Amino acid sequence: MSQQHHDHDHHDSQAGAPVVVRLRGAGRSFGGAPALAGIDLTLRAGERLAVLGPSGAGKSTLLGLLNGSLEPSEGTVELFGAPTVGLASRPRRELQRRIGTISQGLDLIEQVRVLHNITAGRLAEWGAARSLAALAWPRPDQRALDALSSVGLEWAVHERTERLSGGERQRVAIARLLIQRPELVLADEPVASLDPTRAAEILRLLSRVSDEIGTLVVTLHQPPLAREHCTRAIGLREGRLVFDTPIADLATDRLDELYARA
Ligand SMILES: Nc1ncnc2c1ncn2[C@@H]1O[C@H](COP(=O)(O)OP(=O)(O)OP(=O)(O)O)[C@@H](O)[C@H]1O
Ligand SMILES: [Mg+2]
Predict the structure, then answer these.
(1) Binding site membership of 68 for ligand 1 (Cβ less than 6 Å)
(2) 49-61: per-residue pLDDT in tens?
(3) What domains can you pick out in the chain, each with its CATH number?
(4) C-alpha of residue 240 to centroid of ligand 1, in Å
(5) Looking at residue 114, what is its pLDDT?
(6) The model's pTM
(7) Is 77 helix (H, G, I), strand (E, B) or coil?
């Protein structure tokens, strides 16, 4: 087998598992300026992908394509085998129910109790009436309590979210994912503001969540955390995919190139 052929084969640790994400020549521009271009990427169930790259490289834009909140302006995006372009609102909601996102700003509602934020993880699944009732009169159901206890926050059910520390708030966002039970988890810099111990703890939790329920895509600014918790890494620079490698083969000089100043 030629070396080149070998290169194309080398991240198939989940070969045979169902394809969760398939991007072909996918890109996205904002006002004519490309944030992401020409991305080819296939992700299979069970993979844990680290998305690395300097600020502005297109990492959050990629996650937007992966949860269907952004339409590609070039190429195609397929999630669970279905193209995302031109989906009607109902099938789009069906699709998004299978995907759990922790966005860069967490999207927690600050002024309400932790339980409210957890319960929000089920709103996509519940109809409007039940959702409103749950928000007006939240009752801790077993699933919410289980989710909180698996992130070590059972004590915080009735705390106001704004009173929690950065690490605790990250864990609330993870508990919200747990009760949604998504098959694909997208986490955008989930450890950006945390000390190294907390960061490792959150990554361990996310890996555990994805072990139980599927596939993880996480953007990180710390390659060592990617090495420890992910199975594969891609590098983005100025909107382009510059490497795609099993984590064991992630070479330090690739990282130096990735983060080098232009
Ligand atoms: N909604 C938007 N409108 C206009 N430009 C945008 C929008 N979202 C992203 N961009 C631009 O696209 C490029 C990539 O942004 P993106 O947020 O994907 O980068 P990133 O890798 O997530 O950066 P960071 O590490 O700082 O979070 C940037 O130049 C950014 O200004
Ligand atoms: Mg970002």
Answers:
(1) no
(2) 999 999 999 999 9
(3) 1-98+183-262 (3.40.50.300), 108-181 (no CATH)
(4) 13
(5) 75
(6) 0.84
(7) strand
